[in-house]
Amino acid sequence: MAEPPVANAKKPNPTAHLKTVPQEREMRDRIRAEAFQFAKSIDRSKQLTKPALQQLGENLLRETGLDQQYLGFAMVAISNEFWRDQVSAIDFKRRLLLLPHCLKNAEGCPADYDEFGLDCRKCGACEVADFKTKAEDLGYKVLVSEGTPIVLKIIVSGHVDAIVGVACLNVLEKAIDKILLAGIPCVAAPLLSSNCRSTSVDNDWVFDLIGLKTAPPERVTKTYVHLMRASNQMFEVAELNKLAPRQRAKPPLTPNPSPRGRGESELDPLQQHEAIAYDWLMQGGKRSRPFITLAAYDALKGGKGTLSADGVDLSDPVKRAALAIETFHKASLVHDDIEDDDSYRYGQATLHRQYGIGTAINVGDYLIGLGYRLVSRERKVIGSDAAADILDKLADAHLKLSEGQGAELLWRDAKDKQITALDAMKIYALKTSPAFEAALYSGIRLAGPVEAYEKMITDFSRHLGVAFQILNDLKDWQGDSDNKLVAGQDVLSGRPTLLLALALETLTGGDREELLTIAQGEHPRQSQNLLPRVKQLFTKADIFEKAEKLVEKYRARTEAIADAVEPTELRELLYYLVDTVLDHPEPAEVEAPPQFVSLTLPLVQV
User: Fold this and answer.
1) If 0-12 CB within 10 Å is exposed, 13-18 middle and 19+ buried, where does residue 271 land?
2) Residue ranges of domains in the chain, CATH in brackets
3) What whole-number distance in Å separates Cα of residue 295 and Cα of residue 525?
4) Helix (H) or strand (E) holding 172
5) What is the tens place of the pLDDT at every residue in 430-464?
6) Would residue 383 be called left, alpha or beta, if left means φ above 0 and alpha means ψ between -120 and 50 degrees?
7) Which of 88, 144, 282, 333 is disulfide-compatible with 214, CB 3.0–4.6 A?
8) How far is 522 from 500, CA to CA, in rounded Å?
């Protein structure tokens, strides 16, 4: 049986020039037929990655003598055959049909947009209504929107188990990484063009995909969706209050309540403070750290959670340890936002902007205490040695984080803004890596002895954390709808970033002096007018390209460490973490950033 390339295969080369949809129906049908035969020998028990899929697509086109410009189309066709049986076996009521708004009738469409996309009405003027009617009659949930992250959130929330999508090859290429990595059964029909206005699709192909229905397949592909759901569900009201019962107030009846919205008279000060802390803990984010703990534990227990929802066997003590990781993370975000005076987090005002600095500091302290208590009170169940080891690792992570943040603050407040790339990466290793290390360590230690993994955990987490922080620097120049809504905020806030350090090491003469003057806050221009100039200086020094190369360097190091890890389930998890934490499908095309970016509902991340 043919096997796709290993999970940590290097990222494929850009395929922008390989996204041609065959214009002749005969050619499209031929590629689909070839993909059907080609996919028969693929081992469906193993995850299909984007690099593996690209290799399979190249092989198909080469063996059939077809032009490589059809690579993107061939990849979609092969992916469809890989997932066809698994999508077919899922109940219609557990499927989502994702349609693009560009299929609508551009002239006179009566539909409005809501926060989830196009609110389509069954007017019969375009294919959208036809597909929507067919799918809804079968029991599908239907979403008329673009992209995948909103879909991923729906999947992780537990509402659907499979996706049938219609999109242009540009969108599908961006979606493949996330969809495949998450292991979400998905089939798709490519649009016949990418002009985003009144395009078309092979209607019979879409109807065929919507109507897929068979018995469950013998082989099921591994997926982390079940464990991602378990991580996400810990922050739902009922589960959170079971794992960490409130001491001062009855749990709210609805998720993510606003303490202020209840009315000050309804809660006394102690209850209100607790409500603010729990509300903040339930706020969004990827929740990747508690997921790491749960998934590492599951991997060393045989990886059953990657095969089915029934295989997820996580006791409350294990969940509480994972929850503790997130309480520390959320506390660090509160304090970090105060120290940097950030304006936004999770798409809304930061906690200190809502409630004042004093209250926010105290909420952070409260969450730290809550995290330690979640682990310490489980010592009789998980064992005193295991509890002590985990608490020691949490304390070590807390100290390292404080050291890294302290070094950043001292640099920020110093008059001399000189900084080297090595200094910046030392700060990154202290600020970001400890959380990954504590999460991974906790999961492994809960499963048993950890001595054989300790060096691996430290080295892997350090390289992963540094690469993640460099990506975050690049992301800052594009704005960030999950956290910061102000693009270029690192420059405005005077943070010691690697981008700045690289620029100071590369630029010479007047350019270097000007950048140093900006960093020291001594430039005569107003701050918002400095961002285009900083962007020009960074571009002149090739800083964005250098940062991308460093990300790939650290990525390679994490993969090399993962290569030597046993058992297979843990090694595959490490590969998955590299691909998801360092998810950056395309190098940042950095433009002069606007001061504010759109507040439209983001395409939500997992």
Assistant:
1) middle
2) 16-222 (no CATH), 227-581 (1.10.600.10)
3) 50
4) helix 169-182
5) 989 999 999 999 999 999 999 999 999 999 999 99
6) left
7) 88
8) 16
